[in-house]
Amino acid sequence: MSDTTAVTRNERGSRTDATQRTDAAQRNGSALIPPVDVIEDSTGITLRADLPGVPRDKLTLHVESGTLTIEGEVGLAVPENMEASYAEVGVARFRRVFTLSKELDTDKVSAELKHGVLNLRIPKAEHAQPRRIDIKVS
Amino acid sequence: MFQSLFPRDVFAELDRLQREMRESFDLSPSIRGLGRGGFPALNVGGTPQSVEIFAFAPGLDPATVEVNFDRGVLSIAGERKPDLPVEDGGKAAVHINERFTGRFRRVVSLSDDVDPSGVSAAYRDGVLHISAKRRESARPRRIDVQ
């Protein structure tokens, strides 16, 4: 009787260890850094990121207190019983964090994901847009 | 050997160090060049019925990708067009430029048991998935003892 309880406790203990380990691995950021292009023009910033294999439902964009976080998980249609023999992409996760500046309007961020490329547009706030000031001739 | 343009550039030094480490570990590189680090990145796996190749090539027009299989050698070639703005009098500034542009070609030699007529390719979410079937005669079989 006491033996069984010990066994179950052990099993439960090891199981929580395993889940904690995966959680820690995910949080510690064993993730790939996606390559990006950042282009700024007078009305805003365009960010393009390569996220191959990330479907739309596994991509999360997060804007919080001046930082932009891009996170995605690779979802490949791998056939069952496949054995990997060679891998250059060893981690199935992308993550990258950017610090935003104040003049960017984070409420109007638009994003598009096509063929594994994320296209993000962050416009500048109204007051930061360039204006032409008319000179009155008196 | 690779020399840094700026002698005190820490990142260039790290890059050189990494390159030298890689070269010293990989004593006999493949005849078709150093494997790793090219575009697109490749993952290869196998099942008893097929060989599966995943090429991580985002942002391509699937119609322009060339996949050829010739005498046991699979090649993936194409071009990724630059989509950065051309210098137009300082109106747009490029702050970060890390994404690959230009022509690419990667070659993989597959095992002899691959059937040339059974190679198929699909492009989804920026990943090119090539599946090559093994010949029927080469598949593992269980032999009944009579």
Structure description:
Chain A has 2 domains: 1-30; 32-128, Immunoglobulin-like. In chain A, 19% of the residues lie in helices and 36% in strands. Chain A has 1 helix and 8 strands. In chain A, strands 1-2-8-7 form a 4-stranded antiparallel sheet, with no helix packed on it. In chain A, a hairpin with a 2-residue loop joins strand 3 and strand 4. Residues 1-25 of chain A have low confidence and may be disordered. By secondary structure, chain B is mainly beta. Helices cover 11% and strands 40% of the residues of chain B. Chain B has one helix spanning 10-25, and strands at 41-46, 50-56, 66-70, 73-80, 93-97, 102-109, 114-124, 127-134. The longest helix of chain B is centred in the first third of the chain and has 16 residues, at 10-25. Chain B is elongated, with a radius of gyration of 21 Å. The mean pLDDT of chain B is 82. Strand 1 (36-41) of chain A pairs antiparallel with strand 5 (93-97) of chain B.
**Distance between the amino and carboxyl termini of chain A:** 101 Å
- Estimated radius of gyration of chain A: 23 Å
What is the CATH architecture term of the largest domain in chain A? Sandwich
Number of helices of chain B: 1
Query: What is CATH's topology name of the largest domain in chain A?
Result: Immunoglobulin-like
Beta strand count of chain A:
8
How many domains of chain B, as an integer? 2
Order of helices and strands of chain A: HEEEEEEEE
Q: What's the count of strands of chain B?
A: 8
Radius of gyration of chain B, in angstroms, nearest whole number? 21 Å
Unreliable residue stretches of chain A: 1-25
